[in-house]
User: Fold these one by one.
Assistant:
Number 1:
Amino acid sequence: MPRAPSPEVLQGTLDLLVLRTVAVEPMHGWGIAQLIQERSEQALAVGQGSLYPALMRLERRGWIAGSWGTTENNRRARYYRLTPLGARHLARETESWRRYIRAVELILGAT
Amino acid sequence: MSRPLLPGWLADLLGRARALVRRPAMERELSEEIRFHLEMETEANIRRGMTPDAARRAAALAFGPVERAREEHRDARGTRLLEDAAADLRWARRWLAHRPGFTVAVVLTLALGIGGTTAVVCVVDGVLLRPLPYPEPDRLVAVWSLARGETEPWASSPPDFRIFRERASGFERLGGYYLGAANLVIGGEPVRLAAANATAGTFEALAVPAAMGRTFRAEEETSGQDRVVVLSDGTWRRWFGARSDIIGSTVTVDGAPHTVIGVMPASFRFPERTAELWLPMAFPPGDVLDTRGNYFVSIIGRLRPGVSAEGAERELGTLAAGIAADEPQATIRGAHVVPLHEQTVGATRRPLQLLLGGTGLLLAITCANVAGLVLARGAARGRELALRAGLGATRGRLVRQLVTEGLLLSAAGSAAGLAVAWGAVRLLRTLGPQDLPRLDEVALDGRVLVATALISAATGLGFALLPALRLTGGDTHENLQGGARQTGTAGHQRLGRLLVGGQVALTLVLLVGAGLLLRSLLALTQVDPGFRSSGVVTASLPLRHDTAADAPGTWRFADELLERVQALPEVETAALTSGLSLRGGGWGKMVSFADRPPPASRDQVSTVGYRLVSPEYFRTLGVRLLSGRAFDPGDRADAQPVALINRAMARRFWPGRDPVGATIWMGPPEAMVSTLLPAGFRFPRLTVIGVVADERFESLDQPAEPEVYQLYAQSSETPSALYLAVRARGEPTLVIPGLRAALREVDPTMPLAEVATVRELMRESGARRRFGAVLISGFAALALALALVGVYGVAAQFVAQRRRELAIRIALGAEVRQIVRLVVREGAGAGLVGGLVGIGAALGLSGLMRAVVFEVRPSDPVTYAACTVVLLAAVLLAALLPARRAARLPPASVLGSE
């Protein structure tokens, strides 16, 4: 078993992070994993193996769309981008996530 | 992509469908993505300064187990269930194909269970559930009159019908009709066809137009304008060669030329499927039929939208009360309105429901039986299942696989069952009782196929789920170690015993049902019909409308015919009668007695059956004379009119006394109706000269009603029907050509109709009862066979699983008797308990049988005892077979082989 260097990302959160990541520009699986790790200042580690089922799930729901393209080094990779449906979902989820964080902070701040 | 925004669920569904279609491509793509990912990660690691080997290892470690990612990916596609099902199905097919004996046994059992159920569902659907084949059938009702002093609704009189039709506002249309027969001359040949006289409203109420031409118009109800006829599709094809120019042609009906104005569609079967043509309902002025008190017009109505049958009944009741108030001679007191569907099929509901219940039981037994087979098979699979569980298959997954197997089996069983059902429905349609309404509408169609699919799915779940839960419930470790020999022995045995006990209980319920019906049949054959049935031929004689009103003419014709028939060498005696047992022509008349004070009001005047007969009637039909004398040649037209009465009449009106010599008349006391009668009118006084045995008039299972017989020579009445009965010297059917010839000599335009021996009439009378009894007995026999297989299976399985133990016992010197007892107790024990439960269940359900048994109590102890004994004997026998085999086990080879 690989030891997780950082807390494993919860599944629902992983979906949100992936959507946010591909919202900027189309990206392949490895890139998504890297970006999530970097942006979170290494605090969050994506279990890399579980990224692909998540991508499949998001694609099935029509939130992202995958297509084959080439990298700068001329390698074939599957790029994922956000669909309009996905954008709507991302907006809704981000909002509810922020509300949640605020609520938690309010309680934590009160003590 | 510019895909429009889809609702989330639809996008999800499309995604799943795409995943299903692109399955191989997706697997390939996933591999490629994973390879790319690992390469990128490895390169990144190398850039961070690792050696290539370490970089690859680190990348693989960071990724985690590739297979798990693949599995999760497959799950994420959302097509898992379907893919598994397909795999299960392939697996099940292979598994079953390698066990042909088991598969064939299960499929055959299911075919019988599902096929039988489908056939009965088909009949119940066609007869009971399907709406009548008319537009908006919910608004169709039958209307009946309640006459004074009668508790049973009855047909209506023509004048009352016309008042209903004119005044009732709750009906869109009211139509009146009555059944009869018509004599046609087609191509020079006299033909007698079943006819219905109907008003224009009958067809309008049903809202069925003619297929060709038209139906009746209101003005054709007037005598003189009524020389028109509407043909049934069958009549048009059979007698008129389906001529397309039939409309407008002329055909002789009852001696008068009639114009054919219409042909009905083939699907139109009203009032009965036997109606071959329709004539207008018209009465000549002054016709005795067209009076109050002659209740023979059946009424059908189409309610206005929003009007209920109850509302219509209230309105007609008010009208009836109005008639009773306005017209002193009217006897109508109320009306009864019944939905036409109820009217048509109401009487068959209970028997059909019982039949459906019977098939339900049979299906349950089938399920239990197959479940037992599957369980027994499954015992040998314990190891396979345990292995799969050990490799990570969840319990739900294993249950799903076993249930898939069950569904596959039940699907195969249903396919075979449909063939069984198809044959059964064809058989039912030809052999079923012809008086079962709508039998010809019964067909295997989409509705029934859907029902079969549901039955099949329920059956598959029913017999697969229980064993599946049982088989997968055990301890994996223990199963793996113990292998097939030990697998969940106690649990399997318990479930197996439960299944067998259930089967035996259900079988007993069916057996008791069949036993009660068979005893009813037996009781029916022992009913004294009141006449001697052998050697008698009967036929119905045409009474022409134009001569019906002319009594002397009718009787001259009758006398002449009777004389010729009597002269035939094959004929012993012959008789004519206005009404014939099991045939029809029932005629009720009021009766008054000279030897007792008149009743207080007209409502209290009694009504009895009345028949006009020729002198030889009793000798011909073999009706015994119980006291007094029979008619004799001295009872001439000009002599004192005499009457014979039946025993029911003697008992009702002269209990404990001798009625011979009493004086009666057929009518109310004159003083009560003096305003309606000519001055000084007296009903003819009849002297009762004797008492005869009770004839069962309606059918053998109806009690005899009081009857008065009078010689037609001494009466001025004309009957509405006339029957010929002939006692033959030899084989009864041999006299028929002679009868036809005699009739031709008297009147060449008259056909002899409805020729049948009394034996045939008696068989027909019991047809429906026999049909039900035969069907239920068939079910019971099938159930018994299945239950025996079940008991045998449990005992045999017990022997198979305990071979070792039994062999050791034998080796240690156990006696044959002990071994047999051990196995029989295992196999038959459950059966015995099941039998007890079955007796309780049958007793609990016996109330349902009340409506269909005859002279047998639904809790008849003899039937219960006999069924129980038969069942338990059979159960013991079925358990004994494996027991004896067990006792003969050669211990050395059994123990050596393990």
Number 2:
Amino acid sequence: MIGDHTNAGNPLSGQPALEDERLVRALAEGNQEAEREFAVRFLPRVRAMLRARLRGSDVAADLVQDVMIESISALRRGSLRDSSKLTAFVLAIARNVLYSHFSDVKRSPESLEFPDDLPDLRSLSEELEGEQRRVLAMNAIAGLDPTDKMILQLTLVEGLKPGMIAEKLGMSSDVVRQRKIRATRRVADYVADRSQNASPVDYTAGKAR
Amino acid sequence: MNPCDRVPAIENAASYMAGTLSQSEAEQFEDHYWNCPACLAYLQALEAVGDELAREPAPQVAPAPKRRVLAWPVPVWALGAVAAAVVLAVVGVRTLGPHTETPSQAQSAPAGSTSSAPTAQIASSSPVRQTATELADLALPAFSGSTLRGAGMEAHFEEGMAAYSRGDCKGALSALAKVPAEDKQERKAQFYSALCRLHEGDLAGAEAGLRGVVDGGDSLELEAAFYYLAQIDLARNDAAGAHGYLVRTIALRGDLERRARLQDQKVLALKKATDASGTTNSK
């Protein structure tokens, strides 16, 4: 058992160094509770990164699992000596997995030999948060002016730059840029503010009972 | 969760998600948001929005027709507004008495000056009024030619903005009035002319010009037009009117959002204090 779960708070909150040290030590001892805590903290970051970098590709979900499992396996082996570098360590693994995917390089066989006693990393509370975010996003989009909605779609979904959007919509690129910033802020503030107001993550979700 | 004070996190998040950052920029942003709860939340929010937009695409928007650019001087209907504003201004000046100063007297800083320029000092006999007018931010914003990315400046506009940058509002007004109505910089010319009128103490003229900018539809100057309309109302001691324009400024979520939000808090606090003192006095 590591840490006091009642005091765990929001997984997005900053983690003090002492907390990292305790987490890394517990992971090296193969503590499954620590592995769940690790997942609660890092899964959102890894998922956000890979989904963004892979532009919503279906392969993102598989790579997220790979990153989480590789990270836990490496931490079990005690590969991280300086616990203050925990975040950088996981980020490096995530990049490694991502760039390997991009360059289509076959991953080393060791990295694919995952232990079979890993905990279930799925979290009901995270799924609920995702669903809540989806509903909030829908509401935020519904409140947008049709042109702003189109600008956001061309930016976020189709990855077009303001100049190209401007050409498509018959506007100046400065106006597109300005509207894009405003609309982005509006929807992101709406979703992020209300998501924060949601009840805190249930750390016991997914825990074997 | 503390908001991220790194600029411009939200733009980075959108570009990161759109895949338009270079690899090193993307990595820099990752180094940041992996340690920044606010930016991670922004990114997750944008991902959710992107998912929804991908699931249910926005209906096609027809290319915008070329919007009619409002001519300067303003058309007849706007003159009515100007006349009304002039009447209000005259009444206001009379009410305010002999100590009244115009913004131009109160504000000596030239265009391009920062917010360190003095705020309007349209004094009044009432302490509440004095406080309201003191809230007005009449410092003229700097003009940056770089906003005209890749576009050559029309000769009169260039001349007018050079005068504006020197703080020569009369020269600026004279040159900007010659910018052809069909020129793409006409809206900017109208906006900066209004600011010059504000600087000259012509609140009604400034208001008419800024309203013209607003009525012209979305433009780069729209947010600033709302903001300066709020300043005009503050200078006139109209806290309720100023609040209305500040709310519209904030709603645009642009560069002036933060400034407008802070000022609106002060305006609302002042309004509350005024209402409370009115209630006390009436008892």
Number 3:
Amino acid sequence: MFRTVYPLAALVGQETLIRCLLLNAVNPGVGGVLIRGEKGTAKSTAVRALASLLPEILVVRGCAFSCNPERIEGLCSGCRETASRKTDRRKVRIVNLPLNATEDRVAGGIDFSPAIKNGRRALSSGLLAAAHRGILYVDEINLLDDHIVDIILDAAASGYNRVEREGISFGHPARFILIGTMNPEEGELRPQLLDRFGLCVEVTGAQTSEERVRLMKRRDEFDGDPQGFCQRFQSQSETIARQITEGRKILPRVRTPDHLRGFMANLCMENHVAGHRADLVLEQAARALAALLGETAVTVEHISQVAPLVLAHRSRDEQTPPPPPSPPDDEPEEDDPRREEPENENNHQPRSQNNQPRTEEQNGPSPEETPPEGRESSPAPNEEDRNFLIGDTFKVKRISSSKDRLVRRGSGRRSRTRIAQKQGRYVKSSLENKSGDIALDATLRAAAPCQKNRRGKSDLAVHLTASDIREKVREKRVGNFILFTVDASGSMGARGRMAASKGAVMSLLLDAYQKRDRVAMISFRRNDASVNLPPTPSVELAGKLLSEMAVGGRTPLSAGLSKSFEVTRNYLLKEPTARPIVIIITDGKSNVSLGERKPLDESRALAAAMARDERVKYVVVDTEEDGIVSFGLAKQLAAALGADYFKIDDLKAEELVTIAKGEK
Amino acid sequence: MNSARPIYPFAAIVGQERMKLALLLNIINPLLSGVLIRGEKGTAKSTAVRALADILPEIRVIADNPFQLSPDDEYDVYLEIEQALNGQPPAVSEPPVAASRKVRVVELPVGATEDRVVGSLDLERALKKGEKRVEPGLLAAAHRGILYVDEVNLLDDHVVDVLLDSAAMGVNTIEREGVSFSHPARFTLVGTMNPEEGELRPQLLDRFGLCVQVEGVQSVQDRVAIMERRAAFDEDPERFAGEWTERSEMLVQRIEQAKALYPRVTVETTILFEIAQFCLDVGVDGHRGDIIILKTAKTLAAYEGRTQVTSDDAQRAAELALPHRVRRQPLMAIADNAQALRKNMMVGSPQT
């Protein structure tokens, strides 16, 4: 826009990425592309470079919604009324949706300027309108606010954007190609949103020094003389642009032979794809590829070339029966350990029988149970599965999802209190009048239609009344507080168990890191519980402490519980809006009491008392092995606490994106 | 900033050579996209950045333009923005007045709200005239200058997202509060942080071109020198600054010369291979590392008055550009020393 853009033709490597973009440019039916990859791999550069290569389309002149004059039934109300429609040709647009966009700009709203000046009720169309028949591009899409994501999902699903707010009601077609980039290190996408993307491509940096050198040279030349550099690639850029234009022309004539439809359906089924979008996208993508190559019939070759792109983010593990593509919100309470086989990365999990609570070190029979290293099947897409002496880590989904739900559900409550602090991102406005955090734009929009009748004496252009006042609804993603209460008693020291537990805690910590939660850690052993780490945002510190945590001694579960209560209570006093999550990692045994009662009974009573504070959410992670004798003590504890109960293995995410990454 | 009280001169800072070098390189070549200074309290981090104001070169800007546009390269952008703001292009008959001023250091306070950073609806204008106007934020002010964030790791998450966005694209896009607008925002991001208070997000970390670790000076003599200079400065800032004027000016000259020399610096392909190999050995995500090393090496050569990048330049550049880019295991501390790291990797001992 403001600067010479690095040309697409000059990218080194990244053929798959470029192909994905071209497929979308040829056939909007492909449904967009999600570009995942580490930082500095030309993700954003590629998308921006695409803009200059896009073909032209015919639009109604002056129409804010880019109506297609050739399709009468798709016209917006404005265009339908004007009899003589003039047309323009312009390039397909790439509309950039910045992360800090507010709802009114995304969906559209009333334009207060003309309303105030002439009392005319004019619409200010939003980004979705601008993106109609074009491309909606979101950089770092995984960081986009949930409110905005909801709007996009809604529009993408129906192809229509309906605005009912601020006293106006209008709608317009909004069919756009969604292109997003993301770095998985910063957290994953909501499954619902993920599924909207037709294709998904994983990009990595070049691994040979020749390529890297070529890349450096080009970049250096570009920085030295951007214009000259682009001119050098001019002819290649034109070739690509022509390819796109030609492809668009051929596309309507591209046919898919019937027998290949079966092939595609099989392909989808083999990959346990949820829903039918994959089948549809697969066909469209194959047709686009054929068109791009100038052929009029889809072949097996085309299909197998695009299949990985279509299926990458949709295929699931064979072990799981394909569950419906539901957002993580509706999380069923399931206790059965799923996906038994692939996830035994925790190398040593001998069947130790720690049935005698007092036993200090009672080892399970053997390491012969040690399952093979399941690295490849490990769901983590980035390099998170390493052995730290902590047991292997894995991607956590369950807890995080319930956390997500907490944020969203609580969002009404949370935001209101948050507003008082005037922090966080302004996402939309509301009528509530409590905080004094006035949303000026929304207030003006509310006041605008009435200005004509309110013309008064003051020299201000706008006359506001109390009923116009709108307030900001802010959303802040930070702010979960997670307290880890770790059982470090001797019973946990049984071989492998602590390693596995530490692995679980580490995974949760990593998750907390991505979500930027505050963490604290308590461990209990011998006769006492101690706060190893007071509430801090430094997850690194927690990780370090975790690796140094000593194990041994008896199990004062009650002390651990009461300490947890103390810490959360103090935290809540400081930040009343927080909704702490306490994760208790234990086998549920207890053999030291605080008072006179039996240790086990005491801890139960304590747990029941703690459960009464609704602001705190408890999660119990059971470390007990499924042995011949299992006590299910942790389960009982969870019941008393009203906590979610998980086995370590249950914590592992069912990764939707299982992009096979060859281990280098 | 332009108050009567002079700032502590850059040239008078004792020790901290790497930090000073990283800052100077960024001034010479804004394409290095910034430096992250990590270290404990009281190690002249902030002093150094503030002192930069003194030695920064001059740039030409359109007078009274809130977006710091250049009258030469960005004239068409200027027209575009004026058009967007006023609904009509400015009269061609009166070209904008050009002015010359020093590159600015814009400070982004940790508590800054998002609307102040990106810009928002102009309240006065909206109420008095009923017009939508953009009130430019800090990003507009920082265009072609330095954006300085003290304690960058404590920055609000939203603000970080915004920084990521505009640092990557060089454009700040506003789509909020009824305003739809964008303007160029290319800045050198300078951040300081104390790692004890938590790490940066990987994505933001990568946006900093260079990274230096600072610690307290260890020699007694230097510490004494620090105390003496500081005392002298506090006693009579003006006289102290006056004593250092000559050296500051020498520095300014050297920067100007290096800037002029930079386009003529060349690199041999063997050195490029060396850089690529280094990055592969150490394990760097993506390609920003390679590119930054190359640019840093070229800038280093220019700073030292040479037109040929040597292998030594590349090594030194790598030390500045790689520590925060090395592919870390989760939650692992940031490497202090890229060279040592490389050796470790080469030996092949599996590090934890």
Number 4:
Amino acid sequence: MARNARTELRLLARDPVLLVLLVLIAASVAIFVVYPLVRVLLASVQVDGSWTLEGYGELAGRRLYRNALVNSLGVGAVVGVVSVAVGYVCAFVLTRLDVPGKTLLHYITMLPIVSPPFVSAVSILFLFGFNGLVTRQILGLSDFSIYGFHGVVLSQVFTFAPIAYLSLRGVLASLSPTLEDAALNIGASRWQTFWKVSFPLSLPGIASAFLVVFIESMADFGNPLVLAGAAFPMLAPQAYLEITGSFNLSRGATLAIVLLIPSMTAFAIQRYYLAKRQYITVTGKPTASTSKIVSDPVKWLLYGLVLFFALLVAAFYAVILVGAFTKVWGFNYAPTLAHFIYVFQVGLNSVVDTLIVALVSTPVSGLLGMLVAFLVVRRVFPGRTALEFGSILSFAVPGTVVGIGYILAFNTPPFLLTGTLAILVLCFVFRYMPVGIQSGIAVLRQIDPSIEEAAQNLGASSLTTFRKVTLPLIAPAFFSGLVYAFVRAMTAISAAIFLVSANWNLMTVQILNQVGSGRLGVAAAFSIVVIVIVLIAIGIISLLVGRWSRHTSMVRFQ
Amino acid sequence: MTDSIRIVGVEKVFTAPDGSSVAAVKNVNLEIAAGKLVTLLGPSGCGKTTLLRMIAGFEEPTAGDIFFGEKRINDEPPNKRDTAMVFQSYAVFPHLDVFENVAFGLRLRKLPKAEIGERVGRVLDQTGLGPYARRSPNQLSGGQQQRVALARCLVMEPRVLLFDEPLSNLDAKLREQMRVEIRELQQRFGITSIYVTHDQVEAMSISDEIVVMNAGAVEQAGTPRTICARPATRCVADFVGKANFVEATVSAGGAVEIAGRELKLPATAGRQAGAKVTLVVRPEAVRIDAKDGLLSGTVKRAMFLGSVVEYLVAVDGAGDWLVDHPNPAETGLLKVGDTVRLTPSPASVHALP
């Protein structure tokens, strides 16, 4: 084995630029992904320099923390189940049934993915809060409280069901409908066909979607902070409050570790167990057949459910839009531009800062992601699996844990970064690179390696090959990596909230502050600005990537 | 400038992550003269592609040396070896048009624009791609894509041309046409070439020399005629065409005895009388007749193949033979169960050493 490693290194050394890049990437992953996690772990077992498990003992002993753990797990499980159910119905209807308006419904259903995490929380406050449109104005309730379990679940389902939808859409689209036809052909009823063929085939995909939503829910910070309320503690906001409220870094770190364990477990199951059990029945023949296993009434019932969810999404956004132009929601519905004027005067700094952070971190994150995918799939070097694991690890680590890790790791020399632009950019680059890496790896594995060998054979170095051949070929993955990085940089909160400073502030943090001080109108206006920027950016990115790689669509279908 | 190639004691052992290893190429020694086209021929898995990839630099030999001319090139990375390879899957860049595909390597060399345009234009004309210069590869047929891959290599005027089963994805008719074109272009450019294939007809038709490989080792190297007429081993004889292996006994004075009948075979004159010998009898080297002939037998199977009829004949005392009977339209067909007489043509029968 050691001899192998030496040969591999010698081969790499023939391409010095690549070797240097590889070392740099490996070192950065170690410093900016692994090292902060190590610091969190150390902080949780050390008090004033001595080793102790006191923190964990206290956690087990105090009811507040026990409740936080139970609440977070409970919310995660419920949100996972409901989101997967909603996502499955949407995915089934929009991929397999012949119903009108599929494209429009698809985009509406995906809208929550590109918006800041509190849009739903703010909408829910507008609709069901103490002065909510539904609860107070329409139903006249005065003692109804949206805060707690039901509020968080409602808001998270709305936020994460689209993620389940997207992942299940891929699963259902890759199942060959001829299997259903075959079952019907040999005499199974529609009901039997669904439960004995379609459902079992999509089961690994369902489990995988559940775990992804579970991870997201556990890590979610914004919705619980706004909607959980004091009587319903949850892990992520609690860790934040320990650090910012009582300056107890060690307690915060301990909570972060407790938060990390279920997330990492779910991630490990999803990645190393389920991923190998996905049934993909790609036959190379056209599979765009509509499903025959639902009768007409069932079809329209399912379609009704999808319409209802899409309408709900649309309503939430309409409420935000109206709220942003309304003087004081609940009391004075007169139209006003005051909230936007506030955003562009008082809040202008945070708008500019957010844009700078996003514009710097997006291309770096996108390019780095593609480079890592290229190295992992196409080059052999010692520690390849470790690099792949390290660079996608941050996908499973809750932002709160990352944020705490960064303030622990980069508060002292040699890495004194606190309060700088760099710490925000680095955090975003390494946190949002995994999606680009994953899709890059997936696309690259479908491309014949001899295309790149041909380039080398004609005299191109590894880096030239990457730039002139690989990158144009994996343009679709590059595009999704860029979009994801930008969207997340514009909408991130859980890690960023630990890293913002007076010099560098972000819009999402502003939204949270406005919600905290009850100025929902300003929060809504900020949200609208974020959404508009994100939509414009997606348009520009797709234009740029499309122009630069003219044959994108062809490459995708090769 | 083209080069001779010398391969000295080259080995390749692949080690799996679990520690098990497979020797894909075992102690191969070859000399290829400048300007010649040499084919590596063998069944799939015989190591021929691995050997080619080591010459191109995509695989590292576990042992041994490779020389281009006098220069040892083991430690040169693939992009510095000045070889040009035509891949089995063409590997045409799908994001570039035909012209840019062919210009790719020249642009990397930073040649002046005018020279690139002139050289690419010339090669496109020579390969019949002139009218398609601005087409995207997905608008081309398989044969045209193959020409792009070839043009992309020729335009580089490389020291060595490498072909990795370039025609295996084409249909039979196009394959025949392309191998004639490849041979003509190779001879016109005079570039040393190594051509990997598992198709013995392809190998026969384009090579100056054929190297037959099996299980990672070279079985025999020689001109197509030698390989076909004087195979060194049973394996080579079997691989380069259909063959009947007939056990015979050497009798005195340059003859052998098959099933009690004597056949004059001058090639065995030097062998000791009474020794056992294995004869390679090609199906086309046996005359089949209803009445006259050396050996007698019974037709077990008759298969009409258009230009010939292939009979399987149970020869009395000498096992089953495949026998080709040309021009069946004129001579008529034999039926299963008919008794026949067979006469091997001595000039075409080869005794294995």
